[in-house]
Specification:
- By secondary structure, this protein is mainly alpha-helical.
- The chain contains three helices and no strands.
- Helix 2 (about 55-80) runs antiparallel to helix 3.
- Bound molecules: zinc ion.
- The site of zinc ion has 8 residues, from loops.
Length: about 130
């Protein structure tokens, strides 16, 4: 994929999940855990357009809640373990799962921003 090719949706999602540049698929999107790099080190794409806002956190909360609460309910119905065991299992999972998912979700949203040329809305008079 070169800088001027329009990436497919699959390429965009794969690049975002891996934290790679949505334009070339090789450069790094992040310079820290969640800090977006100023530009791609391979193709030079300026990440100034990248503004995922609270979107990744919302999706992570929804996905993590579905997994943790669903699994906790299933385990309660099937095995009925003591509450301390629930806390021991689901507490750490509810903390670790968002930490694992957040970077990938942010990468996907930024990659989708790039693919669809999404930007902040402006008033017609501006
Ligand atoms: Zn790039």
């Amino acid at each position: 994929m070169t800088k001027h090719d329009t990436p497919s949706l699959g390429q965009t999602l794969a690049a975002g999940l891996a934290g790679r540049c949505p334009a070339c698929g090789r450069g790094k999107m992040f310079s820290g855990y969640l800090t977006v790099a100023p530009r791609c080190t391979v193709c030079g794409l300026d990440y100034g357009f990248a503004e995922a806002g609270d979107g990744p956190a919302v999706f992570v909360i929804l996905v993590t809640g579905f997994i943790v609460v669903g699994a906790a309910l299933l385990v309660e119905v099937v095995y009925a373990p003591p509450y301390w065991l629930h806390a021991l299992i689901w507490g750490p999972l509810a903390i670790l799962l968002p930490l694992l998912l957040l970077r990938s979700f942010k990468g996907v949203l930024i990659a989708l921003q790039y693919k669809h040329k999404a930007q902040e809305g402006q008033l017609a008079s501006e």
